[in-house]
Amino acid sequence: MSKSLQRVRGTQDLLPEISRKFRHIENLAWSQARHYGYGEIETPLFEATEVFHRTLGETSDMVHKETYTFQDRGGDSLTLRPEGTAGIARAFISEGLAQKLPLKFFYSGSMFRYERPQKGRYRQFHQVGVECLGYDHPLSDVEVILLAADFLKDLNLLSSCQLQLNTLGDPTSRQQYRDKLVEYFSRFKNDLSADSQMRLEKNPLRILDSKDPGDRKLIVDCPQMQDSLTTESLQFFEKVQQGLQKNNVPFELTSTLVRGIDYYTHTVFEFVTDQLGAQGTVLAGGRYDGLIQSMGGPQTPGVGWAAGLERLAELTAESLIPTTPLKAALIPADEAGELWALQVAHELRVQGHTVEILWNGNVGKKMKKAASLSAEYALIVGTTEAQTQTVTAKNLATGEQKTGPLAQVLV
Ligand code: ATP
Ligand code: MG
Fold this sequence. Notes:
Strand 3 and strand 4 (77-80) form a beta hairpin. 38% of the residues lie in helices and 21% in strands. The chain is built from 15 helices and 16 strands. The chain has an 8-stranded mixed beta sheet. Strands 13-12-14-15-16 form a 5-stranded mixed beta sheet, sandwiched between helices. By secondary structure, the chain is α+β, with helices and mostly antiparallel strands. It is elongated. Helix 1 (16-35) packs antiparallel against helix 5. It folds into 2 domains: 3-170 and 230-319, BirA Bifunctional Protein, domain 2; 328-409, Rossmann fold, CATH 3.40.50.800. It binds adenosine-5'-triphosphate and magnesium ion (MG). The site of adenosine-5'-triphosphate has 19 residues, from strand 6, strand 10, strand 11 and helix 11. The site of adenosine-5'-triphosphate (ATP) has 19 residues, from strand 6, strand 10, strand 11 and helix 11.
């Protein structure tokens, strides 16, 4: 096969087996989000490049190394969305939604990042996520985390995930911490990875997010955010912790958790599992009070999270996905039976049943197929049945067989 006919590296063909899982996970997320009062939003798959450069920060890996950016035929620079929040913030501003606050949005869709493909890491992947705009109350952070926990519980994954929690404080706290980090890491500048040397100048907090083993050794003894927090930021963080405790959501304080994106303030969190190797974060989020203003909109607090469907699907057992039972497999015995089969199948489908018509092979083969599909009934229809408007129904569990009008032989 010529290369151009193969899947592009890092992309996936989601065949029905896996789509089924994705859809199930998506439905659970959406159903929980509805309970929490969220409405669904769908923003474009691509935005003006600026939308991401301004919001995610020029120094974030995502913008610096991971975006798919291209010029369209009109000469505009566009970027495929690498995440959901920036586009929603853009929509909030361009749709003039400030009058309607507070707003709670749920989304689901593809994201694009030019990363090294590996298990749990793709170049086109899928996220479900929520954004809660207009509340600066610390307990609204807790509410958003509870939504995540309820969703993971529905997936049977909550007990195998750990909630890691940290705060980045307000801008004052962050600046103080930044200065301390620069002082500390500058002492080891030559030992830092090339990426982190660059981060040291542009965004030292992001060094804490480095996956480089050498960097990680230096991070162990670095200054802690806790020691740079203003009184207000500390109180905010304590309230978040209190809210989680009251609701019996266990968490671990993780001082190195900073998240890959520049716009977070106060609460940041991740649900992490040890069952996926290096790609252990399944759901991640935080508060981003400065984001909308930094894009030129009104100062608007926000908090949200996103979860990767590929990683959640990997953890979800096939047996947990509900299947649609097959009520009947239609087995035409001859040509007249084929036309009648189509009518019978349609009638059953209109009644709400799932039905399969078996077009290929002789009756024996079709019977085997019906059994392998776990149909409740095999409905054999030939010339006689067509003429009398009946079906010959075989209950595949009991082996019992009856001929008669559909309503009489099917229960
Ligand atoms: P990582 O540290 O694993 O690169 P991240 O901090 O870049 O994650 P976020 O931007 O917070 O991830 O995205 C939220 C979630 O989306 C992640 O926890 C993960 O489940 C999923 N995710 C992120 N990038 C990818 C990817 N390239 N392929 C598949 N899932 C991804
Ligand atoms: Mg990443």
